[in-house]
Write a structure and sequence with these properties.
Length: 222
């Protein structure tokens, strides 16, 4: 693999990947999300957020790199916000979707591929592998998981005709095909999110906030 830009997992929820058909159906009790036959438990999500939050607060670069509008960023509170929890859940879903895309297209990153992905993340201007992982809403001990996702991206882009030239037409086509591969994988996995954490947005690959509906009296509607 040659040096190039890496679409950091932290930025992926902002990409437009068409995942029509995802997010429907019931979610089992105790599950934050279901991704195929795999269950992301509420307790596991809570534990991940608890591990991540103090590490994120201690890393100014991670905060600077976080891929969400400034008005949605946590502003120095003592606990992770609802948007933080959604970002972590989205990242956990993406890791599983990436693994499915790799299986679908017959690629399997080696330990060396993951090591090289970490090295490339460390070469990113104003960032590094740890800050990228924290910006994605995951604790430091998930660095290799994020790097694996990035390694899968690079391997699939090679498979899709990437010419290793930044922003070339071939690179753009390969990136579009990679996005399509994620969409196909997500459809196969039938991603479902517990309504407690919001609704899955198939156009932005994001978990939207819970919408609290006011009563007719509270909303001023009689």
């Amino acid at each position: 693999m040659k040096t190039t830009r890496i679409t950091a997992l932290a930025a992926l929820p902002l990409s437009v990947v068409l995942l029509s058909g995802c997010g429907g159906g019931p979610v089992k009790a105790g599950a934050a999300a279901l991704v195929g036959d795999e269950r992301i438990s509420v307790s596991g999500l809570d534990r991940t957020v608890r591990d991540w939050w103090p590490e994120f607060k201690a890393d100014p670069q991670a905060s600077a790199n976080r891929a969400e509008p400034p008005e949605q960023q946590q502003m120095g509170g003592d606990a992770a916000s609802e948007s933080d929890v959604r970002a972590t859940l989205t990242a956990l879903v993406f890791l599983k979707v990436g693994d499915q895309a790799a299986r679908d297209h017959g690629v399997e990153p080696t330990g060396g591929d993951v090591d090289q992905a970490i090295a490339l993340m460390d070469q990113t201007p104003n960032s590094n592998a740890v800050s990228t992982t924290l910006a994605a809403g995951l604790p430091k001990d998930r660095v290799r998981d994020v790097a694996r996702f990035n390694a899968i991206q690079l391997l699939l882009m090679d498979r899709f005709g990437w010419d290793h030239t930044r922003d070339s037409p071939a690179a753009q086509r390969a990136m579009q095909r990679f996005d399509q591969a994620l969409g196909e994988a997500a459809r196969k996995l039938k991603v479902r999110v517990n309504p407690r954490f919001g609704t899955f947005d198939p156009t932005k690959v994001a978990i939207n906030p819970v919408v609290y509906r006011l009563s007719a009296h509270e909303s001023g509607v009689r």
